[in-house]
Here is the input.
Amino acid sequence: MKALSISPDIFAVLLIALASFVHTAAVAQTQTFPTSAGPVKITPLNHASTLIEAGGKILYLDPAKPANLADLPKADLILITDIHGDHMDPDSIKAVSKDGTEIFAPPAVVQTVTTAKPIANGETKVWGAFSIEAIPAYNLKRGPAPGKFFHDKGRGNGYVLNYGGKRFYFSGDTEGVPEMRALKNIDVAFVCMNLPYTMPPEEAADAVKAFHPKIVIPYHYRGSDLSVFQKALEGTGIEVRLLEWYPK
Here is the structure.
């Protein structure tokens, strides 16, 4: 059988079309939330990587490979949650940065991403129309060996973004820790679940019941059965939205 021959020009057009398709698929997942300061648009990119648009500003949470960032707008602010490569990726940070981009990150991240400004567990920073709270994110019982944890207490952050009277929570890498369970008045929660590193869906659902957001969106869920999470929250009055964080 004769091999199919494709000219370089046609191949280039096909690559551009594929990139456009992937970008369009991500945009189709965008969630828009009304606030008193105007809409907040949140787009899943990959795993923990998230694009947030509000008030003419562009924010990224944990931009990291393999998220396709090539055709996306440059960041005004980047938030990083932890030191692991699926959250802290210097190449991806560079890809979405421009002159004037600010970065907030835990002190452990600042050791590597030296242009970042530290924000530690329990701190709050005001950035434009946003107030950003750093919520502790850590393991209670899971780790690579007895007495060790994948995520040590005090190292990583989740974040609550306050904007236009609405509160958006991004859990980072964590189990259902007391600081998560004690959250108040969360409008939209993005909650992780994946073993062995964070927690299974049933534990994530139990933690979500404790702080009862209006809407919960699983993210950072590779390998998890989201139907278990969804079923566990039936009848609670919490809206569960399932988005595609792992585009094919």
